[in-house]
Design goal:
Layout (H helix, E strand, L loop, with lengths): L2 H7 L26 H10 L11 H14 L3 E5 L2 H10 L7 E4 L5 H11 L5 E4 L4 H7 L4 E7 L11 H11 L2 E5 L18 E5 L13 E5 L21 H5 L3 H12 L7 H33 L4 E5 L9 H7 L7 E6 L2 H11 L3 E2 L9 E3 L11 H6 L6 E5 L5 H13 L2
Parallel strand pairs: 2-3, 2-4, 4-5, 5-6, 10-11
Antiparallel strand pairs: 1-7, 6-7, 8-9, 9-12, 11-12
Helix pairs in contact: 1-10, 3-10, 4-5, 4-9, 10-14, 12-14
Bound molecules: pyridoxal-5'-phosphate.
């Protein structure tokens, strides 16, 4: 079935006692057992519900829908995009292991790698997500290569197939943060060889900037045979790979991230995210059209030093975008205002478009990464992440393109 169909039908409970159309919210912490054997059985097998920290029917419906939308073998929903990255990595590494990551990754991810995994004795080497550089950085301890589908605000797209075959050959997990792939509508890295994808559902899945959420998804693979954590018997005496096959990875994410890690998504937020996915294709199609129209408008403006939008044939990311973004070129564009920091400041002081550090919202949002999202990085690291003082990032929403054009035009006049 096509994405648009799965987005409204996948994951709907078939056995609702009242025949509800839509997803009921299970606002409960625990589930009752019919007797000793029932409780024992549920705890021993992990089948059936016990306690919402481990699984909840509303969150489970969201997980099923996400897995269907991206062709995954399993999905785990968590409290935020950060907790998804945390649990995804925690399930892949052990002290002494190494990670290779792109320096352009989301700031929170860089912090997680340096400040949390660094403390746990897991070292990260930062190199651009290009095959020659990644190959040179691989050591016998490398367990993960971590890239982003469309790094922002630099708007760089890795060559997924090339990186995936390198990881496959070296038995390394290829992990892609697919937040900017809009829950698989714009991009499906699992189809191009990634083993695991993570999402901040806060962005396109929510679509309304109203709740936080995250998810980890993985595909069918034999890679886990090379990871000792899936070959050693667990506390119940089960060898994860034998018991679950490819699902051993999402099971570990559920165990470490939720059952013992406690990074649980509220059932209420799961409900909103499940509903958000239903209109995601409509919103993203509109954002694609609006962004293309604004890019064409901005490209001819004299107050603009440069413009980046992967949909423009002249854009450095265009060729890979055309190959990997099967759902269109997305709603993110970045521009450099003439006059550096001063020019950007004048532009933003007159801009009627909302200014906020979020993306994927129905509303168009602008931000000045140099002084906000990336301000805590030292200057050289900001530049390495593709951020510059004159840069403004725009996440295009679903408003009328003519109104957005007028707002941009008015602010440019002030520069
Ligand atoms: C927002 C974001 C995150 C973190 O997600 P939260 O839901 O804010 O915790 C991770 N990766 C990317 C690419 C993001 O844009």
């Amino acid at each position: 079935m096509d994405y648009q169909t799965l987005a409204v039908l996948a994951g709907l409970p078939a056995d609702d006692p009242h025949g509800a159309v839509g997803l009921p919210i299970y606002g409960v912490a625990a589930y009752r057992f019919s007797g000793l054997e029932d409780g024992q059985q549920r705890f021993a097998t992990g089948e059936g519900y016990t306690y919402t920290r481990i699984q909840n029917p509303t969150a489970a419906a969201l997980e099923q829908r996400l897995a269907a939308l991206e062709g995954a073998v399993g999905a785990v929903a968590l409290a935020s995009g950060q907790s998804a990255s945390f649990a995804a990595l925690l399930s892949l590494v052990r002290p002494g292991d190494e990670i290779i990551a792109s320096p352009g990754l989301f700031g929170g991810t860089v912090g997680l790698l340096n400040q949390v995994f660094g403390l746990m004795g897991v070292k990260t080497t930062f190199v651009a997500p290009e095959a020659d550089q990644v190959r040179a950085a691989i050591t016998p301890n490398t367990k993960v290569v971590f890239a982003e589908v469309l790094a922002n605000p630099a708007l760089a797209i890795p060559d997924f197939e090339v990186l995936a075959s390198l990881c496959e050959e070296r038995k390394i997990a290829f992990l892609v943060d697919n937040t900017f792939g809009a829950a698989g509508y714009l991009a499906r890295p699992l189809d191009h060889g990634a083993h695991v994808v993570t999402h901040s559902l806060t962005k396109w899945a929510s679509g309304h900037g109203s709740v936080l959420g995250g998810a980890v998804l993985s595909r069918e693979t034999s890679l886990w045979e090379n990871f000792p954590q899936f070959l050693a018997a667990d506390l119940q005496g089960r060898v994860p790979l034998e018991a679950f096959g490819s699902r051993c990875y999402p099971e570990r994410v559920r165990h470490l991230g939720l059952a013992v890690g406690g990074m649980v998504l509220s059932p209420f937020n799961a409900y909103l995210l499940f509903q958000g996915l239903e209109t995601l294709p409509l919103r993203v199609e509109r954002q694609n059209l609006n962004a293309m129209r604004l890019a064409a408008f901005l490209a001819g403006q004299p107050k603009i030093a440069w413009l980046r939008y992967p949909g423009l044939a002249s854009d450095p990311a265009h060729r890979r975008a055309a190959k990997y973004l099967q759902g269109g070129f997305g709603g993110i564009l970045t521009l450099g205002i003439k006059g550096g920091l001063e020019g950007a400041s004048r532009f933003l002081s007159q801009l009627k478009i909302l200014q906020a550090p979020n993306v994927g919202d129905v509303r168009t949002l602008a931000v000045h990464p140099w002084t906000t999202t990336h301000s805590r990085l030292p200057e050289p690291a900001r530049l390495a992440a593709g951020v510059s003082p004159e840069m403004v990032r725009i996440s295009v929403g679903v408003e009328s393109a003519a109104d957005l054009e007028a707002m941009l035009s008015e602010a440019l006049a002030a520069v």
